[in-house]
Write a structure and sequence with these properties.
Layout: E1 4-6, E2 9-15, H1 19-24, E3 40-45, E4 51-60, E5 63-69, H2 73-83, E6 90-94, E7 97-101, E8 111-116, E9 125-129, H3 143-152, H4 158-162, H5 191-199, E10 205-211, E11 225-227, E12 233-240, E13 245-251, E14 259-262, E15 265-269
Antiparallel strand pairs: 1-7, 2-5, 2-6, 3-4, 4-5, 7-9, 8-9, 10-13, 10-15, 11-12, 12-13, 14-15
């Protein structure tokens, strides 16, 4: 994966003396683990524990830079302003842009922040760069190609997560395996439900990539139900990538099966490298 500007994302700058304690009570990741050389992946949840939006968080000088899906940045800004009460924080839209890349070598001087992707090291690097009128894209690949790259690694891109807004719990999309949730920090919105899923092993389905080796038309598969060899419901396809990768929510009893079926057509289950659930 080359340098890939992610033009579907925008950056929210969060400053002020109370910024760390303020965010700590609202998000799933542990803000205390953030440093100038790292990046965090986290979530805003609803009180019922469902996903409101994912984000990446960087620290620079005396402020945070929150990398959000562009469709969510104004909503999150309003939410933070509503929750700030007497906390000393200031919010502003940053002109920086998000990017992903496989190597930090030979990067343009416009790069302002870069850190290993906190979800899974094999994904490479995430960062922020400064654009100019002459160089708005910097030899980048499109968001669509990066979406395909994530899909092949068994990860649902953030915009796809938002397409299922408030429909899934974090663990169903493997976000607990992707370092989006701290199990040692204090309270945050949605924690009670999230902790219950974790400690009581309540997750009944999880996201899995499937290999489509058949002649079935890809764009007709989303929201298609999967079955086992006896015809019982086993899961649901939620994303069909043009490259041939399918992402599906698979029921727990089939997580260790080699194949699953779409009617009579077999699809190979490709358990992600980060998947460590029995």
């Amino acid at each position: 994966m080359d340098f890939s500007p992610l033009l579907s994302r925008k950056i929210l700058q969060i400053s002020g003396a109370d910024r760390k304690n303020f965010l700590q009570g609202l998000v799933t990741c542990d803000i205390n683990q953030l440093s100038e050389d790292s990046c965090l992946y986290g979530l805003f949840l609803t009180p019922k524990g469902r996903i409101k939006t994912p984000f990446f968080l960087f620290e620079k000088d005396n402020y945070f830079l929150m990398d959000l899906p562009s469709t969510k940045i104004e909503e999150i800004q309003k939410y933070l302003l509503r929750m700030k009460l007497r906390n000393q924080i200031d919010l502003a839209f940053s002109p920086l842009k998000a990017f992903a890349c496989s190597s930090r070598e030979n990067l343009n001087k416009t790069v302002q922040k870069i850190a290993l992707d906190p979800r899974f090291p094999a994904l490479g690097w995430r960062g922020l760069y400064k654009t100019s009128e002459q160089d708005n894209i910097i030899n980048g690949k499109s968001d669509a190609i990066y979406k395909q790259y994530l899909s092949k690694n068994g990860i649902l891109e953030d915009d796809l997560i938002l397409s299922r807004e408030e429909e899934n719990y974090p663990s169903e999309l493997n976000l607990d395996f992707l370092n989006a949730i701290s199990w040692t920090k204090g309270c945050y919105t949605g924690q009670e439900v999230t902790a219950r899923f974790y400690h009581r092993s309540l997750t009944k389905r999880r996201l899995m990539p499937l290999e489509n080796t058949s002649s079935i038309k890809i764009d007709s598969l989303e929201r298609s139900y999967l079955n086992d060899k006896d015809g019982a419901k086993a899961g649901e396809i939620i994303y069909a990538d043009p490259s041939g990768t399918l992402l599906a929510l698979i029921e727990k009893k089939y997580w260790d099966e080699p194949v699953i079926f779409l009617k009579e057509t077999s699809l190979k289950i490709q358990k992600p490298n980060f998947f460590h659930c029995a």
